[in-house]
Specification:
eight-stranded mixed sheet, alpha/beta, 451 residues, 14 strands, 22% strand
């Protein structure tokens, strides 16, 4: 068993017995559809892990209370949209409770008061609403535009001490200014004002196949990494810019929230052995297009396109980036597009945070390394897959394997920040704290834009 701090979300269908009595088969089909089309995409977006399904309910674990609240809000929003056009007596409506607390992990399951309080908060939530504990409220206050109303101390069933609860109100915070010292999307990101700043939004997948989203996300991440290597620029980290995926905000609004002067957006269309990438750089204050370009290339040229986009942006913004700087920023690319494709698919699976996906990601990343053992960027992600196995079972062998793989990545490319980051993780879990600190500091020096 493993004890850890986690944000626990519990959701339950309102009036489930009534729905089942009226139409058992239809209710089961509707729940299955909502799980596939609503629940799972929302949890994937906000990095939630389904611990278990409980008939008409679900228990989900998050590493972050902010992610848990964002997921709950998005879940209720999408559930309401899915009910449009459906007779009112057949609406599938959820109550959601969230708590931040200590839990005990046993295998893939979790137990403890952290879970029990979340379940009791769900029971007192309004239909279609979200109820959170004071611990969650204190953690997310100032880090989200959502408004909460204090419900006071609540006596919850089988919970010894009263729990202060807050319910989500409709609407958003009138001011985006936060009193919290923690960085968040609700406040402009602190940055070095002497450097031109840019945010790269997730490129749209225009391939007509949702399964190809991993590819457009991979292209976006690689462009962010390439731009980050230009020390004359400040670029927002991936997690912050990707949080605006699917939001109906204007470019000036996004730029204001992220505290940047420029925004890069674009699209990726992959067809057969060809790819079309469009990119446009927008000055936030005026909304003017500073630069735009379309790249029609063979997939074998994809790395050249990434570097071209990054170099043009850096040159456009700073006006002082010389060719030799760009050359030094170039990293080792795999020998073939197939290697790169395997790696992107493996990275996408690893980030889903389930044992099955981690194992599937491991297989793909191992294929990438088998085809090109010198491709350093595949090693840290493969190490993360093994770290996931260690996290599930605390299997020392998995941690040992992860450590060896991560160190191999650094040996191949000492200038890769992600390689150093994963070695630092391994050092932390191995309780080699000085080693971990060294590699963390090395990663910060290599890419100071990486949150």
């Amino acid at each position: 068993m493993e004890r850890r701090l986690a944000a626990i979300l519990v959701a339950d269908v309102v009036g489930f017995s009534r729905l089942m009595a009226a139409d058992e088969a239809g209710t089961i089909a509707a729940l299955r559809q909502r799980r596939v089309e609503v629940l799972e995409p929302v949890l994937k977006q906000h990095r939630g892990r389904i611990v278990k399904l409980m008939g008409d309910g679900v228990l989900v674990e998050f590493a972050s209370a902010v992610n848990a609240v964002a997921a709950a809000i998005e879940l209720q929003k999408r559930m309401a949209a899915a009910n449009e056009g459906v007779p009112e007596d057949r609406h599938v409506v959820l109550r959601v409770g969230i708590n931040l607390g200590d839990v005990v992990g046993a295998g893939s399951d979790v137990y403890g008061d952290g879970v029990n309080i979340a379940a009791r908060l769900e029971a007192i939530a309004e239909p279609g609403g979200v109820c959170v504990s004071s611990k969650v409220y204190q953690e997310v206050e100032g880090k989200t535009t959502a408004l909460f109303e204090d419900m006071g101390e609540q006596s919850l069933k089988n919970i010894g001490a009263p729990v202060r609860a807050y319910k989500l109100r409709s609407g958003v915070r009138p001011s985006m200014l936060s009193t919290s010292s923690s960085p968040s999307l609700a406040t402009p990101v602190k940055r070095d004002s002497s450097k031109p700043s840019v945010a790269v939004l997730p490129f749209d997948n225009m391939s007509g196949d949702p399964e190809q989203e991993y590819f457009s996300d991979g292209i976006t991440e690689d462009i962010i990494t390439a731009i980050s290597r230009f020390r004359s620029l400040f670029v927002i980290a991936r997690n912050s810019s990707f949080a605006f995926r699917g939001q109906s905000l204007t470019i000036p609004e996004i730029a204001k929230r992220l505290g940047v002067e420029y925004v890069l957006e674009g699209s990726v269309r992959r067809a057969g052995n060809r790819v079309r990438i469009t990119a446009q750089l927008i000055e936030a204050a005026s909304g003017n297009h500073v630069w735009s370009e379309r790249f029609d290339r063979s997939l074998e040229d994809i790395f050249a396109v990434q570097e071209e986009v990054a170099t043009v942006i850096a040159s456009t913004l700073s006006g002082q980036v010389r060719t030799d700087i760009a050359n030094r920023a170039t990293r080792k690319h795999p020998d073939s597009f197939l290697v790169y494709d395997y790696a992107l698919r493996g990275i996408q699976l690893q980030q889903k945070s389930t044992r099955h996906d981690a194992d599937a990601g491991r297989v793909l990343l191992e294929k990438a390394i088998e085809l090109d053992p010198s491709y350093a960027e595949a090693y840290p992600w493969l190490a993360l897959c093994h770290l996931a196995f260690w996290g599930y079972d605390l299997n020392k062998a998995a941690l040992t394997t992860a450590t060896a793989i991560a160190r191999r990545g650094v040996a191949l490319d000492d200038s890769s920040a992600i390689c150093h980051i994963i070695v630092a993780y391994c050092g932390l879990y191995n309780r080699e704290f000085q080693l971990s600190q060294f590699h963390h500091e090395r990663a910060c020096a290599l890419n100071p834009n990486d949150a």
